[in-house]
Amino acid sequence: MGLPMASRLARRGYVVRGYDPVAERREKLIEAGGLAFDSPSDAVDGCQRLITMLPNGHVVRETLLGGEPCLAGLLARDCIAIDMSSSSPTGTQELAKRLETYSVRLVDAPVSGGVARAQNGSLAIMVGGEAEDVSEVHPLLAALGESIFETGSLGSGHAMKALNNYVSAAGLAAACEAVQIGRRFGLDPEMMIDVLNASTGRNNSTQAKMKPFVLSETYASGFALGLMAKDLRTADDLARSLGVPAPLSKANAALWEAAVKQLGNAADHTEIARFLSSEDAKS
Fold it and tell me: Which of 244, 280, 232, 238 is CA-nearest to residue 259?
């Protein structure tokens, strides 16, 4: 997601200084009009706005605070860091306190929509933080998304993203199970998806994932199984920390973690269908 987002900003006229450990991605950023660097410290030195799009909040914290030199100390004074990763809400709040030492402000702005919507700038963005900070970065976010939701205080964007992915993952798992049941009865899976999409069972997965990635068995949506499982654990941890009974959230998180154990973190998240048809799922 980071590469198409950075490329879009460069094409929209922003001066984008980027770093990625994969050389091919750095080359593609240059092709899009951005500046690519061989080290993160060179990329962030003196920048006014920093966007992180990383696997999780732990990696974000280690990237900004754990290296030598400390990247947070290289940022321009009063820089606004925008974490667009899917991170823990509480971890984000803790990170903000540590960044204050370096006069760096933090906004959380995770996204939803996948690679295609990152490329055309139509992402949904959930942004949390101080009102003044959110206002300052709004034009930049508007270049990346067409639906920008101001969710509240810092960490609220990450909370909303985790809850969104919980609902999304539950819908995908339900659709996959329904197709397996229907196929065993003798129903045609393609017809089943058509019926669901014309009926109350319609959801994002039935509309955008079941035919192209699950029924086709290509499993190439571009979003990893491990990342989805991580977001579901974040949502369930949030419910537990708030004392909210959420039995379905708990069961969903456990289901996807079991799928990761069998298929691996790098498997596409639509491969949940493969797990649900396996012997491990039956146990």
Answer: 280
